[in-house]
């Protein structure tokens, strides 16, 4: 009997632990990153990471995470927000980008844009809540069980954060946008997602406070609470701001937080492996402990660390390219306790054979002969949602004929491959694309090269 009770207890504890594991943001702005199927295999077999967040609806990634059990949060491109206020368009968007993958790929969140209030422009801000309501209604009508609609906010939404008791949202956004948005979260039981970055508040005098290291703390004389780290202070500042609008019951999630391990000379001493390991390691331990914050004790949050890989094609200073927990070969930049005990040897990406170059040295991306029409249609939908010019395959376009999925897919897949930098992985398309040295152009339809 005791043995049986112990087994039940262990199963319960495992379930609790899995329900609150740390997630990561999986960015793809790199020309040396492993293909999505290997990323999915690595996360499932070698780490305790049980959820990812991506900044688009990349079908290659969604296919790769099918049947892994890993939760996937996707992001609607900012520019789609005004169109999503139309119910029919919202249903069509889901039918194209979500329904083909869910539930084999366990999509848990759809984020409507990213940091819209911070970056704008105003038409997106004005349509944000309406788009979220429209998309939520479409999710229900489409029977896409388990998917929650939210959006992530930078802490630029706060007018002040120190001390937390005096925090409040910025005037104009508070009643005009955030109150209706929080009302939506209350009604739909979805989380208000924020991106707290103590990293940006780092200074020589408060280094330990930002890094979860020992320090004298910051005392809030109004609530009589002492803060031992900036993360807790920022989270409670958000909570107080919500409370002042009457929404303290709405759950909070952390969409992004992290630390860069390397930076320019002017970014020192903030950016270092030691600091990144200290911050992210402490964050993982804090999340696992379930301690919460001074104003939200024992509160657990969904937390997504930024990011999974160092991304060598990100713009900005050196620090922007070094937020990753892992290098592209899956070796850890530093250890924060997310690798499984048997994962000492990293999974090495399988090198892809390069095709024989044509006499001109040019290469094109086309569908594999065995690729299904369903897979190729998904490739078309993805490429055309990424800003690639798809007018040539539309009626009247130079590449409309022959009017079939394979021909249209060939043209847009190659356009994506060429405009993204002609890297082999840009022609992977979850195994449906292949590189050729034979020019597929025909008649008036000229393929990029």
UniProtKB/TrEMBL annotation:
<dbReference type="InterPro" id="IPR017853">
    <property type="entry name" value="GH"/>
</dbReference>
<dbReference type="GO" id="GO:0098552">
    <property type="term" value="C:side of membrane"/>
</dbReference>
<dbReference type="GO" id="GO:0005975">
    <property type="term" value="P:carbohydrate metabolic process"/>
</dbReference>
<feature type="domain" description="X8">
    <location>
        <begin position="363"/>
        <end position="447"/>
    </location>
</feature>
<feature type="region of interest" description="Disordered">
    <location>
        <begin position="344"/>
        <end position="366"/>
    </location>
</feature>
<keyword id="KW-1015">Disulfide bond</keyword>
<dbReference type="Pfam" id="PF07983">
    <property type="entry name" value="X8"/>
</dbReference>
<keyword id="KW-0611">Plant defense</keyword>
<feature type="compositionally biased region" description="Pro residues">
    <location>
        <begin position="348"/>
        <end position="358"/>
    </location>
</feature>
<keyword id="KW-0325">Glycoprotein</keyword>
<protein>
    <recommendedName>
        <fullName>glucan endo-1,3-beta-D-glucosidase</fullName>
        <ecNumber>3.2.1.39</ecNumber>
    </recommendedName>
</protein>
<dbReference type="GO" id="GO:0042973">
    <property type="term" value="F:glucan endo-1,3-beta-D-glucosidase activity"/>
</dbReference>
<dbReference type="GO" id="GO:0006952">
    <property type="term" value="P:defense response"/>
</dbReference>
<dbReference type="GO" id="GO:0005886">
    <property type="term" value="C:plasma membrane"/>
</dbReference>
<dbReference type="InterPro" id="IPR012946">
    <property type="entry name" value="X8"/>
</dbReference>
<comment type="similarity">
    <text>Belongs to the glycosyl hydrolase 17 family.</text>
</comment>
<keyword id="KW-0449">Lipoprotein</keyword>
<feature type="signal peptide">
    <location>
        <begin position="1"/>
        <end position="21"/>
    </location>
</feature>
<dbReference type="Pfam" id="PF00332">
    <property type="entry name" value="Glyco_hydro_17"/>
</dbReference>
<keyword id="KW-0472">Membrane</keyword>
<dbReference type="InterPro" id="IPR000490">
    <property type="entry name" value="Glyco_hydro_17"/>
</dbReference>
<keyword id="KW-0732">Signal</keyword>
<dbReference type="InterPro" id="IPR044965">
    <property type="entry name" value="Glyco_hydro_17_plant"/>
</dbReference>
<keyword id="KW-0378">Hydrolase</keyword>
<keyword id="KW-0326">Glycosidase</keyword>
<keyword id="KW-0336">GPI-anchor</keyword>
